[in-house]
Amino acid sequence: MSHTQTRWPLAYGLRAALPTGALDGWMEEIGGVGPQVLNKTNTLAGTPEYLAPEVIDYPHDHDMAVDWWALGVMVYELLAGQTPFHDEGIADPMARLLAIRRSQEEAMQDGICFPFHFPSKSKGFVQDLLRRCPDRLGCSGGARAVQSHDMFRLQKFNFQSLRARTLPSPFRPEVDIPQVGVDVEPDCCFTLELLVQAIALIERC
């Protein structure tokens, strides 16, 4: 995301379904990004659970800061197994969007609800991303401010090693690759048990 925002001033709609992983645990790419826009836009589009409040609220004016909100939602979903905001089970698209907006407002007023297994080191990071602008992490300072957050700073996280792909991945999926010509129905290898194991590994880092 830092790489993209540094080179193209756009808001592209990040979500957890986009990153594609490799067998060594590294993310290969983020594909299927949304509309590319310069500076600001007032388009109401995107995955409802990932839309920042300023996208939903009229007149929908927003800029790249919505990507930092989406990052907060994605981190929460990856570590909790669900998104932080609820749609009240409503099927109608517009009514569902407004229900998510109500859930966002409740979370910003009363605090985000974290499940018991959520890594304590990551809570402050998510909370700082899921704020209104201009208080949202990343609104001022961009990627540099995000990388300077206590979650990374206190652990002395090495972003240079991350960019060079020399940093060991905390989670490497075990995937059975079938032989060529063998018709095998693949099993779902990523389960809740594996997610909990990955969270435990992150907690020990």
CATH topology call: Transferase(Phosphotransferase), domain 1
Radius of gyration over C-alpha positions, nearest whole angstrom? 18 Å
Strand content: under 5%
Q: From the helix content, strand content and strand pairing, which structural class follows?
A: mainly alpha
Task: Note the total helix count.
Answer: 9
The H/E string reads HEEHHHHHHHH
- Biggest β-sheet strands, sense, barrel: 2 strands, antiparallel
CATH superfamily: Transferase(Phosphotransferase) domain 1
Architecture, according to CATH? Answer: Orthogonal Bundle
Describe this structure in words.
By secondary structure, the protein is mainly α. The chain has a single domain (2-167), classed as Transferase(Phosphotransferase), domain 1 (Orthogonal Bundle). Helices cover 40% and strands 3% of the residues. Strands 1-2 form a two-stranded antiparallel sheet. Helix 3 packs antiparallel against helix 5 (120-129). The longest helix has 18 residues, at 93-110. The radius of gyration is 18 Å and the shape is globular. InterPro entries: Kinase-like_dom_sf, Prot_kinase_dom. Pfam families: Pkinase. Keywords: ATP-binding, Kinase, Nucleotide-binding, Serine/threonine-protein kinase, Transferase. One of its GO terms (molecular function) is ATP binding. Residues 1-152 form the Protein kinase domain.
Annotation keywords:
205 residues; mainly alpha; Transferase(Phosphotransferase), domain 1
